[in-house]
Design a protein that fits this description.
single chain; flat; about 100 residues
């Protein structure tokens, strides 16, 4: 995945925290969509909203870790897709006649 490039911007505050806008987006989305704990959607929304504050940088890092877990799981799920594809001899393309 080294060839994937996106345009974004970065933010620095202090010497420790250097984040890209995409990091914040993925972290907040992961907190919003989190299903690891038995919590309501409104609890997840509040946590995602809290991670946008500089005073809750630990919560944002938790969201980024959740986003990483989600991205790591995609190749494992995609590996099973070949089992459900139609047989190569069947043409299922949508062409007008």
């Amino acid at each position: 995945m080294r060839d994937v490039r996106i345009q974004t911007f970065g933010v620095h505050f202090g010497f420790k925290n250097k984040l890209l806008a995409s990091d914040v987006v993925h972290g907040a989305a992961a907190l919003l969509e989190n299903v690891e704990k038995d919590e309501s959607g409104s609890d997840n929304f509040i946590k995602a909203l809290d991670c946008l504050s500089r005073s809750n940088i630990d919560r944002l890092h938790r969201g980024i870790d959740l986003a990483k877990k989600k991205l790591i799981g995609y190749p494992a799920d995609c590996g099973q897709l070949h089992l459900y594809q139609p047989h190569p001899s069947r043409d299922l393309s949508c062409t007008a006649t």
